[in-house]
């Protein structure tokens, strides 16, 4: 497998009963243990007390927002603390480490082992045909990248990838560099997660982001959480859901798996108040089949339509007539959709769908939240559009306590897109760059993540620069992607920690170690700060408070500016050195180029932050082509698999954040010691002639190509019949490169037909 697939850890797996509640004392113990082990007592106290504080730094984990007003002393969750501790850990991966381990040796280590080794400290270079990284000085590294870029036949032979942890300032410089260089090849992690949300929301309400704030969660009468596991992926969201419950709100959880975080929640800080109570969160759990969401939502819509005709429910007629289009087509589609199709596709009985419909009927302010469980399907964009249908009929846009809420997984993935990280830039944005910097930006659309991989595989790309992230582990079709990367002349990874993308490289490779979110960033003796945008469109500052892990570390803006200086012969009045001499200068040009950032420096320094304009929320106005919010007609997908096949979705464990593996346990699901497991329904296990604890090969057949992973243990779990779940990134080799969402090109990792073969 040539090192691009993570080998399994040798520890034995065990299965216990899944947990009935999230957080509480176990979360406190886990947080404390992880922090002290990685950072030590002093740094743990120093760091954790500044996480998500107004004068502190933004958590490098998820993008869940902080309260606008008063904040607690501990404004972080268990997994946020793990992300911080992981970044600020004492262990180091230095030149001595790389002289000890060859790339071949490191490739045999698990992702868990790689992450435990510590912070990268020095720039490292792997020469062509070498199996070792060796230290290189910064200037030589910058010159090497610059020469490689200058020697390209076309700027479009380079890829500039971005992770969602990059600050606004770094992201703006990065896209400016790419476009000054001459390309829109700016794929990012959003291409693989919420691109479907952006496409669906832009088409229906004219903005590719959510329309709610944290305060709306307090005021909502109903919150619907779809395709999402907040207890693991956005734990601070549980506090908002708890607040909603205390205010009399109702919660529906739509997910194939029953997740502990949506059953009961025990706020860890309540123990300091000597309170032992926990809060029941979900009033109703709908165990929908994988990709049965459109059918379920059509069923709820059909129930509400029937109740309206009986005189038991009122649509928001004024909102519909004044602000929307296509309502009649939507109603016609509900009438024409048969209940048998709805129940068969969703896996939910009619009476249970009607129960959910009653929650909608009785609610005057509704929020629908979602994550990858809706977006990573072939019909992912339609899934998002159907959620909008449900909200529009009741006028639940631009109302207090109501709206759409795509929950972002990376701390600044929303901000990156706002800063221009996108392969399909809008003309207005390009015009602003041209006006401010006096150059002609490229207008031809660039490669997104999936098309970048295909282009690399065809030999069309020679240089890849990754600004953060772990590309090989995050992307689909691992074998295909690895083959693509190895065809590059040069791969460059700007990173804080060792990961598998440092082991799967182009012919030559560079690792450029950068400062983390937790660390002090000094420029010319003056502390700098950066800004981020959370999941709800709020821009705020982030300032690290720890001594850098190494004197050799450079900030992301510094690295970007110096690569640009070496790659572009004429500065074209950009002034890279001036921009990074003081980050105020970067914010000044952001203000000049991007709407909503007026008086950027003044507002960010004198206030805790500010909200960006959001027309649907602010004024019930919609920047669509027709100026209206658009109802849509979305077909229920055919989810039937051939005989012997089940539908697989990839998921994360509780001891994991994106591709970073903190541990081998999934505490809430009761899985201990190993990640090579497949969660299956008992009936499926029996019908396929398999056994619990049996080791199997999982096979994905697509376009006549046979993809497989070995060594997965079958575990019995409460999951709908016909569905299975495996962990990401271990199961990524099963996700075909061409199995993507229509319109967004997002990998359809949540709906993969698979079959099984027993292994001895």
How would you explain this protein's 3D organization?
The strands form ten sheets. The chain has a six-stranded mixed sheet with strand order 6-5-18-17-16-7. A six-stranded mixed beta barrel has the order 25-32-29-31-30-33. Helix 1 packs across helix 2 (about 40-50) and helix 1 runs parallel beside helix 3 (about 80-85). A hairpin with a 2-residue loop joins strand 30 (about 695-700) and strand 31 (about 705-715). It has three domains: about 15-20 and about 645-760, Barwin-like endoglucanases (Beta Barrel), CATH 2.40.40; about 120-180 and about 410-610, Rossmann fold (3-Layer(aba) Sandwich), CATH 3.40.50.740; about 195-410, Dimethylsulfoxide Reductase, domain 2, CATH 3.40.228. The protein is built from 30 helices and 33 strands. It is globular and about 75 Å long. It is an alpha/beta fold and about 750 residues long.
